[in-house]
Description:
349 residues, alpha/beta, TIM Barrel, two-stranded antiparallel sheet, 10 helices, 34% helix, 14% strand, globular
Amino acid sequence: MKHSPEWVRISMAAAIELGLKPGKIHGCHCGCINLLQNYPEGCYANCSYCGLARHRPGSAEENTFIRVAWPLFPTDQVAEKIGEQEVTRRHLGGIGRVCIAQVHTPNANDDLVDMTERVRKAAPEVPISALVSANLLNEDWLASIEGAGADIIGIGLDAASEETFRDTRGRGVRGPHTWEKHWDIARRARQRFGAWKVNFHVVVGLGESDAELVDLFYSLVDEEIRAYIFSFNPEPGTTMEDVARAPLQRLRRVQLVKHLIEKRELQRDAIEFDADDGIVHIHAPDEFVQQTIDSGTPFMTDGCPNRAGEVACNRPYGSYRPGEEYRDYPFQPAASDLADVRRQLNSAP
């Protein structure tokens, strides 16, 4: 049986980047080697939107995750490739980052520590993030993960509000996850790893309102915890397979407001919402807003950094399929891309 810690799944973009699969990524390199634990029995959780949910048809090894294929390789082979790329890319700063993601299973903690140690042994200086399943953890496990070599903890909160969390990840779908435990582990990790060394993944389009997203962004800034947003992309065979994605207009407005909150200290009362709690206007000097849009940064993929402090986790094709409009840009948007962004920001909902 091909299961972790001896085997690991790797995103297709990362597999191409390491030379494990043929192909080319348009416009950029894959800055982060995203790895995912693998168990034939699959995940014990049952999140309504997730390709790994226990009630999704098909075998765990064949299912996609965030609509992306994750081919399976021996962990030591992947670690060796990471080590080789660290050497050959030394003049470019090496591999940007490695992220090892847990699946919610009984052995996931031991295996995460084991897999982190394997990567650290093969690549002593590569930055490593651990994307954890909060309900499996406690302070001792956080210490073990840190000791194995991880410097950042990521947590898939996904849902922006407690109600949406319950309906998509918790009791509403007979899942093991709880809102309270996710916040508890995030705060404990924040104390251990330090300011801005912990992040929540947040998915736009699970049923939350823009106002709930905004409230979450402000709360996380206060706690010195990062928020990395993803765009919901329905997975075939999941409970939410027929739910439409957030319109691009909505996503762009959320991306813009998030950036202004985090980087430009936009005040809460500057954001105007409609009757459905959707963002409709930003009350700020036009030059202030336009300069931010012109930078393109709000609309780029945000994720864990490389050694230079730049975004490593650019996740090509993580929120969209090849040939679709970019949901987030894995590269610096060009003038033509920014023209698309402006059109999307101002389009009819």
